[in-house]
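Quick one: structure tokens for this chain, please?
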Amino acid sequence: MPWKRPLLWAACLGAAAVWHARREGALTPRRDPTWAAAAWRETVVDGRLVAPARRTRQGWRTLLEFGSPTGPQRARLWLPKGADPADYAPGREVSVDGRLRPPIRPRDPGGFDEEALAAAAGAGWILRAESARPSPRPPPAAWRPWDWAQDARLSAERSFARRLPPRRAALLSAVTLGDSGSMSLRLTRAVRDSGGTHLLVVSGLKVGFAAGAAAFAGLCLGMRPGGRAALAVGAGGFYALMAGADPPSLRAWLMLAAGTSARLLDRPTTPSATLTLAAVVLLAADPAAALSTGALMSFGGTAAVLCAARRLEEAAPRSWPRPARAAFILAGINAAIAVALWPLFASVFGRGSLVGPLANLALVPLAAGLMAAGAALWALDALGAGAGAAARAASAGLALFERVCARASALPWAAVELRPWTAPETAAYLLGLAALVAWPRRRLAAVLAAA
């Protein structure tokens, strides 16, 4: 029984402790007074890049760590206009000329919270570079995997840009690599209102795709089961690094590694146990990031899938054709994810999609196909043969993905405006969901519902 697992209770208590610490400001990155005196003025900051460069609509962004009299400081760094992100590998030292400032707090409830986004990355500053001078020295050996992963991601994005129009290249980068920063605002809103936002971030499906492809390659090469498992876990980890090693990608990789290790050691395990282990590891390693919006959506969505999938499979009539049963289960899973994440939709996006469970019947299979099309396009473009056919196939899939999002989001009942919920409202809602999950254990469900 999941309620009797000590690790589950440890994760719950740890999450509650971290939430309380964050509310009290204990996890807010401290800003050094010396640097605070130089805020908003032109200054020179020397430090080391500690994250891959990611594209946004405002330019390329990364994370800079620099020294101060009171300890290391971090800033979200926007690279100079026209800078080549390949020159800014993680681990490389860099000297930046720009304006350093504290992040801006939201002016209204539910508004853009730059401070929370920066704090989730451990950053207490925002730095927009007028110019930057990367060191000619290569990054330390410990940073080489990050460097290789960034080179691989940039190579894939360059392949997409060469073979596809800019709008569709940006969408393919989002679906395959979780890099949605260069998508147009209009398309981003259409995907959000159609309930497809979860397809633009790294998920277990994408990490599993990379691991499965590696395992299949190992099988074709005649590798033993242990070698294939190690190759699959390594490929999944490298893909997580390509995607930025943010909490959703790390959650998926930790579950993959735990499940694969258990099978190799012939130890019993369940997806819920690996999810709990991933939560404990992330809470211990980086408490601030473990309760970031991306982490909460990833863990909450996965938990909803694990709770609903088996019940939906049992509820689907056996007399139905297999495609109808699959559609029923998929729609139910998407509805469960939306219900579980509704308070987050209210606090982060201010909107919730009602059409999502139906739109995802088409969007989820399309996203899986686009993952394969993106990998094929990248590989064939590197080989210089067959990339044109792969680009046409990817473009057709992307056009269909856009059309589904546009049509679904245009429906009058597609999405609703939401106000941010208070803490008691959120707690009451989650207790109600827990009561539903606990059913048919009537006493436990009654206690949770009463609470």
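The chain has a mean pLDDT of 88.
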